[in-house]
Design goal:
Elements: H1 16-23, H2 45-69, H3 78-97, H4 104-127, H5 130-158, H6 169-189, H7 193-213, H8 216-234, H9 243-263, H10 265-276, H11 284-300, H12 312-325, H13 330-339, H14 344-352, H15 359-389, H16 397-414
Length: 425
């Protein structure tokens, strides 16, 4: 849609939909005050209601504007049409998979989240302009600062018993690592002093919170982001506003890492052992392998079309026997059995709502190779478009590169998580 067809705010020249986008991140801060029994609903009920209402409102406003301005939605630029079409094709395949899903009602919940994402994505793609996007960035900066402060407060007050203030601290870490690259890139490349200082403060706070949170997937994603920024600088794809800023951000990283390394040395050793040793008390590796192996056995037996959206937890008990009885998995089974008495919480999750802890593997299991390919087509197209959009205007390329790096960080973290595409934050 062309800008002249949008409803404009006379004071600022910003469309009403763009203004609405500024309030959208507040959805992530809605607490889940409607508590439900463990065995009845796997999501965040209160937040999902708010998310559904917001997506319905956005869709309604978008449709009203299409009718009012007599805009033909089929006359989109070819690249936009392909991007939107691939997303809709992936959602349609999820709907089709409900036919054989053992828990169609939960499948509808997950599809609803994807549909809401599609509404926000399509409207943002066709409506959002640079001025409004910059305002949205600073709204997200405030959200990131608040989430980082909440995680730091939890660690200081509750130690290892962090249950989350707004939601699970694993989700908090995923949100923070997705937003961190935007803060770092804005600090490195923005020539305006105030935005530069705001981004430095937000980046430092987020980085400290991510390291203190000790979520392995998020920490790995953080490392990947900084490595890619280094490569971008070496290849002159990132234009620094001042070379001294690179020294400052490196110092922030070193100071944060040193503080966390000294203050939480024992916990770090504990987490590293859990990720690398089958007999570790922490049990991280054995629990992940248990989920990954069971998922793989389920997936390879339903490789083409999967078991249906949200079907993995319902089918878990049926396919777990392949993990426990196959001799090739004996070492993992022994490690899991030896450490089971120390991780009752993980065992409770296994009974209540087993998680794959790898979004890509779970998509393969539930939607098959077809679903995984449709998923990959959309995200690869989006990554390619972001890279292309960074080229025409070098002065503003850091915004787009920050978004691209955020997407990469999210994709890395999602390889160790089951929150990414199944919970609304």
């Amino acid at each position: 849609m062309k800008s002249k067809t949008k409803p404009q705010s006379k004071a600022a020249g910003i469309s009403l939909l763009e203004i609405a986008f500024w309030a959208l991140p507040l959805l992530a801060l809605i607490p889940n005050f409607f508590l439900i029994p463990d065995l009845t609903y796997p999501g965040l009920a209160t937040q999902e209601v708010a998310f559904s209402v917001a997506s319905a409102i956005f869709a309604a406003i978008g449709l009203i504007e299409l009718v009012r301005t007599k805009t033909n939605p089929l006359k989109l630029p070819r690249e936009q049409a392909m991007l939107i079409g691939s997303l809709l094709a992936f959602i349609l395949w999820q709907v089709v998979s409900l036919k054989w899903s053992p828990v169609a009602y939960d499948g509808v919940r997950v599809i609803g989240i994807w549909f809401g994402f599609a509404v926000f994505f399509v409207i943002g793609l066709t409506v959002m302009r640079q001025r409004a996007a910059e305002v949205l960035h600073y709204v997200l900066t405030a959200i990131a600062a608040l989430l980082a402060a909440s995680l730091l407060y939890e660690r200081a007050v509750f130690g290892e018993n962090m249950l989350g203030i707004f939601f699970n601290h694993g989700i908090t870490s995923e949100v923070l690592v997705t937003l961190l690259p935007l803060q770092v890139m804005n600090y490195l490349c923005n020539r305006k002093p105030l935005p530069m200082f705001i981004s430095l403060a937000a980046a430092g706070l987020s980085l400290l919170a991510l390291l203190v949170g000790l979520r392995r997937g998020a920490v790995l994603a953080t490392v990947v982001v900084f490595v890619l920024i280094g490569i971008g600088l070496a290849m002159k794809q990132i234009k620094l506003a001042d070379s001294k800023r690179l020294i400052v951000i490196a110092a922030v990283f070193v100071v944060a890492a040193t503080f966390v390394g000294v203050r939480y040395r024992q916990q770090i050793v504990y987490r590293i052992q859990g990720a690398t040793q089958l007999q570790s008390v922490e049990g991280g590796l054995t629990n992940r392998l248990r989920g990954w192996i069971t998922a793989w056995e389920m997936g390879k037996r339903n490789a083409v079309i999967g078991v249906g959206q949200a079907g993995y937890p319902a089918k878990y008990g049926e396919y777990r026997r392949y993990f426990t009885t196959d001799p090739s998995y004996a070492t993992v089974v022994q490690g899991y059995s030896a450490t089971a008495k120390w991780h009752a919480a993980e065992d409770t999750d296994e009974i209540r709502s087993p998680l794959v802890h790898n979004e890509y593997l779970e998509i393969f299991v539930e939607l098959g190779v077809i679903g995984l390919l449709l998923f990959a087509v959309f995200w690869l197209q989006l990554g390619r478009r972001l890279w292309q959009w960074s080229k025409p205007n070098p002065e503003n390329a850091h915004w787009v590169l920050g978004a691209l790096l955020g997407m990469i960080a999210f994709s890395v973290s999602s390889a160790f998580s089951s929150f990414a595409f199944r919970y609304t934050p």
